[in-house]
Amino acid sequence: MVSETPQQREITRLCIQCALMLLQHGAESTVVEQLSSRLGVDSVESSISANAIVLTTIMNGHCLTSTRKNVDRGINMHVVTEVQHVVIMAEHKLLDVAGVEKRLTGIKPLCYPRWLVVTIVALSCGCFSKLNCGGWDAFVVTMLASGVAMYVRQVLTSLHLNPLINSCITTFVATSVSGLLLRVPTFHQTSTVAMAASVLLLVPGFPLINAVADMFKGHVNTGLARWAVASLLTLATCIGVVAAMAIWGLRTWA
Q1: Partners of 66 in the beta sheet?
Q2: Residues 46-71 pLDDT 10s
Q3: Largest CA distance in the chain
Q4: In the list 34, 65, 73, 110, which could disulfide-bond 78, CB 3.0-4.6 Å?
Q5: Is the per-residue pLDDT at 30 higher than 50?
Q6: CA gap 112, 81 in Å, rounded
Q7: Edge to edge, what strands does the sheet with 62-69 contain?
Q8: CA-to-CA distance for 160 and 246, rounded, in angstroms?
Q9: Interior/surface letters 33-63, b for 16+ CB within 10 angstroms, e for the rest
Q10: For residue 129, which phi and psi values (nearest 5 degrees)?
């Protein structure tokens, strides 16, 4: 029986590296499965779960299996897009095995400056409050509260705090700032929609969308795992809101 070739081992390593990078940065399971199978072997069989990838390549009748542990790196579509570009270039014979390895190794997550992220998040939450009949005073309150909360979230993330605790603390800060601002005479008549809009930065929309997409496309286990994580993040957000309203005696959103 002839063993696998060094070329197959190298391609297998690149396939699973491609799959792992996609899964770590928020790609849905179908995208991970499809892109990792387009790097130049006869067939690729993969098993994707929330915390690991098992991938087998078949080349000239020989099978080779590799496993990698998945560690969440945060959602970053820049990485997903760059990996897709590398795969497309390999398909069109513009990159050889060494070129693919060099490109994949050189991909780094795109991180925007903190001040820019805080500004954009604050504006988006403020616009949401304005669209929901909050008025310009609610717009200002929401901007201030969500901006402070986003900065706190960034600091806690840099300290590698558990995402659930991070969400809870960030929500507590957002609700506290917006609720206490509503007690200031200037904002006494401001709509309480400002309190609700200030925590929108913590809605786990992307994980929920991926969870539903995975389940619809047959990756039920991965979809349920992502749904569970999104539900826990939502629960942590609710705990932060309730804690802030109980401690400060804030008026409700209704």
Answers
A1: 55
A2: 888 888 899 988 888 788 888 999 88
A3: 83
A4: 110
A5: yes
A6: 16
A7: 43-48, 52-59, 62-69
A8: 28
A9: bbbbbebbbeebebebebeebebbbebeeee
A10: -65, -35
